[in-house]
From TrEMBL:
Keywords: FAD, Flavoprotein, Oxidoreductase. It comes from Actinomadura barringtoniae. It comes from the Bacteria. The keyword Cytoplasm does not apply. SUPFAM superfamilies: FAD/NAD(P)-binding domain. The keyword Oxidoreductase applies. Belongs to the FAD-binding monooxygenase family. This is NAD(P)/FAD-dependent oxidoreductase. Pfam families: FMO-like. One of its GO terms (molecular function) is flavin adenine dinucleotide binding.
């Protein structure tokens, strides 16, 4: 059948992963469309102070391209971005990326995807989306936000031209981002105000530095990198991933570590205000080594009165107090349910992605959609994105997608899409399993979809990988 033409949307970590796998399989007619002018996805967009990956570096990397040079147990964001840049060059992917070009629509017609980009049309046999999960910043609907006279920006759009030293800075939000910013920034502004709506549990995670000797040893003995990868994978799989999906010693252990960590806060009033109302891990677990030290500094204040509105000089809380500030940072998260959109996808019989997902994003086995032939997603709906390495998940999904592309190349199939029945069976199994997870134990989080169920994988990441290793051909409608 010859080689297929493949279009990948997005040159972040998962798009690069897919492109490398295709290249290694000898498939060269591949284009990655990237709407920004640089690669790296979330590691390009986020540049806030304190940006760190809270998954250990030895596991948060491609298993086939480990980096002996990581400087820390948890790598700083710029180091991860450099790593992705180096990988793109090492595997010759940069030449395949068309930067500054947005894919706005795609229609499956006559067996091909007809693609509309901001620079003109294209066509492909396969359309693969690698558009990320946390891509669209969510601005809070706080009245008067526009009235503030000083600079205001979202954490994923950090304005590095705004000086912070010696000024009064407010951070709204205490998710992973707000916690990392606060831990890093404390001490720089003359006053740092952290506006907390809901307290969150913090797993103690001091960030150990890898010394020169360790790095040299890893350079000389690549086996150490492989061991490091397997070790962190095993710890996360056997402890954290289990704790999320079922009761047991793992859940008790992580809960106890979080509760003990909170005792680092010596002032009983502050400790009470930092005590979350829900179970550890109900919201995405935050890992930090320095947060409780930061919030106990005299120049840091945790404000727990609700924000009423913002005015020219600062933030006014429900008790009527005006908190005067110079800079306002919104660490208020992302629209995690805007998967793939605003791209318009349409099938030859007029089905649209928007309509298919009107009740929330649903997929077949996290990677494919019924009615959408030769279309696959990386980090699609219900991918195991909890606290696991998203790179390991992208690798499993890329291998699965590559399997179908190889079958196409071998002439075994011309088009493939999962059946509606198989997709419904998969989603109904998931709906049954999701209430057993910790995410439904009674908290609001970005994990929850319209139906109140988490849009997450309710089993272990290893089960996700093993599911994708064994494709069920009967679940697919194929032609050719
Ligand atoms: P997030 O977890 O969604 O947290 C948003 C924060 O903003 C919450 O504290 C929320 O309060 C608060 N908030 C939202 N609207 C508000 C309003 N109107 N008034 C006051 N507070 C408001 O967002 P995030 O911290 O950016 O993290 C998102 C995800 O990114 C993480 O869960 C994680 O998956 C990923 N991330 C990962 C890393 C890493 O190291 N791997 C680092 C950063 C982020 P409520 O809790 O009350 O809603």
């Amino acid at each position: 059948m010859g080689d297929p033409r493949v279009v990948i949307v997005g040159a972040g970590m998962s798009g690069l992963c897919m492109a490398i796998k295709l290249k290694q399989a000898g498939l060269h007619d591949v284009t990655l469309y990237e709407k920004a002018d640089a690669l790296g996805g979330t590691w390009r967009d986020n540049t806030y102070p304190g940006l760190t990956c809270d998954v250990p570096s030895r596991f948060y990397q491609f298993s086939f391209a480990t980096n002996p040079g990581w400087t820390h147990l948890y790598s700083p964001g710029p180091e991860i971005r450099d790593y992705l840049e180096r990988i793109a060059d090492r595997y010759g992917i940069r030449e395949q990326i068309v930067f500054g070009t947005e894919v706005t629509a795609a229609r499956h017609d006559d067996g091909r995807w007809r693609i509309t980009t901001s620079r003109g049309p294209d066509e492909a046999d396969f359309l693969l989306t690698a558009t990320g999960v946390l891509h669209h910043p969510r601005l809070p609907d706080i009245p008067g936000l526009d009235a503030f006279e000083g600079p205001t920006f979202h954490s994923a759009r950090w304005d590095h031209d705004v000086p912070l030293k010696g000024r009064r800075v407010a951070v709204v939000g205490t998710g992973s981002t707000g916690v990392q910013i606060t831990s890093d920034l404390a001490g720089t502004p003359s006053r740092l105000l952290l506006f907390q709506r809901t307290a969150q549990w913090i797993l103690p995670a001091p960030n150990r530095e890898y010394g020169r000797l360790t790095r040299a040893a890893h350079r000389r003995m690549p086996v150490l990198d492989r061991l490091g990868y397997r070790w962190h994978e095993a710890v996360i799989s056997h402890v954290l991933s289990q704790a999320l999906i079922k009761p047991g010693w793992q859940r008790r252990l992580i809960g106890a570590l979080c509760r003990r960590n909170l005792n680092k806060v010596t002032d009983p009033d502050l400790r009470a205000r930092l005590t979350p109302p829900d179970e550890p891990m109900c919201k995405r677990l935050i890992a930090s080594g320095g947060f409780y030290d930061a919030v106990q500094r005299p120049d840091v204040e945790v404000v727990t009165d609700a924000i009423d509105h913002v005015e020219a000089r600062g933030v006014v809380t429900a008790d009527g107090r005006l908190h005067e500030i110079d800079v306002l940072v919104l660490a208020t998260g992302f629209d995690a349910h805007a998967y793939v959109r605003p791209m318009d996808l349409t099938t030859s019989d007029g089905r649209t992605l928007e309509a298919a997902w009107q009740d929330g994003p649903r997929a077949y086995q996290t990677v494919a959609l019924p009615g959408f032939p030769n279309f696959f997603m990386l980090m699609g709906p219900h991918s195991p994105i909890g606290n696991y390495s998203l790179i390991a998940i992208a690798e499993a999904q890329a291998d699965y997608i590559l399997g179908w592309i190889r079958r196409w190349r071998a002439g075994l199939v011309a088009s493939m899409a999962p059946t509606a029945d198989a997709t419904e069976r998969f989603n109904s199994d998931m709906r049954e399993a999701l209430p057993r997870t910790i995410w439904t134990s009674g908290c609001a989080s970005w994990y929850l979809g319209k139906d109140g169920l988490p849009e997450l994988w309710p089993w272990t990441p290893r089960e996700h990988a093993s599911m994708l290793r064994t494709p069920v051909f009967d679940d697919f409608e194929t032609t050719g």
